[in-house]
Give the backbone structure.
Amino acid sequence: MRTNIENKVVLITGASSGIGAVTARYLAARGARVAVAARRTDLLQRVVADILTSGGAARSYALDVTDKANMEAVVAATVGDFGRIDVIVNNAGLMPIRPMIEVNTDEWDAMIDVNIKGTLYGIAAVLPRFTAQGSGHVINISSVAGIKVFAPGGTVYSGTKFAVRAISEGLRQEVGAAIRVTSIEPGAVESELKHSTSGTAKDTVLDFYKLAIPTESVARAIAFAIEQPDDVDINEIVLRPTRQEF
Ligand SMILES: NC(=O)c1ccc[n+]([C@@H]2O[C@H](COP(=O)([O-])OP(=O)(O)OC[C@H]3O[C@@H](n4cnc5c(N)ncnc54)[C@H](OP(=O)(O)O)[C@@H]3O)[C@@H](O)[C@H]2O)c1
């Protein structure tokens, strides 16, 4: 059966591990042509090799989402290589958990630069193209921490994920009928994210993540949003482990 995923060109940021890598494989298996982007190009090449071996279509691009020109160049290269872009998944993210009182402004800067500005740069690079072609889908990865403040420790991370959710909703209201906007809000999912906490909260985070659900749970949610008919806009999906209270 033909789905609304088949043949779509989907660019996924932060696709070298975790949710991004698994989503690339999941969508490619359903006929999407995927552009995978991140800084660790060796890991991206493995994702591409797996997809090509399975008969899918994929290419990798070196991307630091904090670099606006790099983001624009990757979107331009995706369009050059595949002929168009239909979906961007703004997925790259960091979660260094640490109480505010420890005042680690480098971590605050990094989360703002990757989680918020990286998402905005992705939107900036696709929006003129989506507008010109009269179609497109922006999928932003927020979090349950973008619905409820996760404190102490996750205050700045929550701030960035509230921002991603707010930007998604505002974008939806602004873009009109031709462009779809989805915010995905996962709870604990098995990935490398828990290792971005290196400070005093490290053991607490590792302990909390024992209840994490497989990464493919998020890939399924992303696929569900994409596969809807063009006039159906899935705006928010919240998913968490059944055992997760927060
Ligand atoms: N896992 C969870 O429990 C969970 C829950 C809710 C939301 N999320 C969100 O899901 C998204 C994906 O996270 P994950 O769980 O899959 O974690 P992950 O395995 O750590 O993946 C994070 C990805 O982000 C990329 N990245 C980080 N900084 C980047 C930069 N400057 N430029 C480009 N890419 C960058 C990393 O690639 P490189 O290092 O190769 O660049 C990596 O591929 C994040 O936005 C996260 O906040 C995760």
